[in-house]
Amino acid sequence: MKYLHTMVRVRDLDASMKFFCEGLGLVENRRKDYPEGRFTLVYLGAPENPEAEVELTWNHDDEAYTGGRNFGHLAFAVDDIYATCQHLQDMGVTINRPPRDGRMAFVRSPDGISVELLQKGASLAPAEPWASMGNTGSW
Ligand SMILES: C[C@@H](O)C(=O)SC[C@H](NC(=O)CC[C@H](N)C(=O)O)C(=O)NCC(=O)O
Ligand code: NI
Hints:
Layout: E1 5-10, H1 13-23, E2 27-34, E3 39-46, E4 49-59, E5 74-78, H2 81-90, E6 95-97, E7 104-108, E8 114-119
Parallel strand pairs: 1-4, 5-8
Antiparallel strand pairs: 2-3, 3-4, 6-7, 7-8
The ligand C[C@@H](O)C(=O)SC[C@H](NC(=O)CC[C@H](N)C(=O)O)C(=O)NCC(=O)O binds near residues 7, 9, 39 and 55.
């Protein structure tokens, strides 16, 4: 058994590429257009393990995606969680769960896909009950 990818549907491919690549540092491995199916698939990977991919599915005919409560988040380990969150915030991304503990933060993609950021080397134990939500601008 080999893990391949997690697929998320995105409504604005450019905005999602900016978030996942410029914001989080993922790299495009490949993409394929399916004009007959009116969709595009873009496979992104992290530099350290590019084979574990995020598959962005962009349906050319826009639709609102609802439900999916069973989906939790995508998780990435970062070198410096404060610097990563500051970079994302400078790009206009809301830091939904700031890295007050220096260990864990949560942000959301343009489509509301939850993304967990974990400081490399930090404990992966579940976080204590979340501190109040909201982006105070400082942590
Ligand atoms: C190539 C492989 O990695 C795929 O995931 S293709 C799976 C296929 N995707 C699509 O048809 C994309 C367009 C479609 N309108 C959609 O939004 O899924 C597929 O079977 N998708 C169905 C699914 O539930 O994933
Ligand atoms: Ni797939």
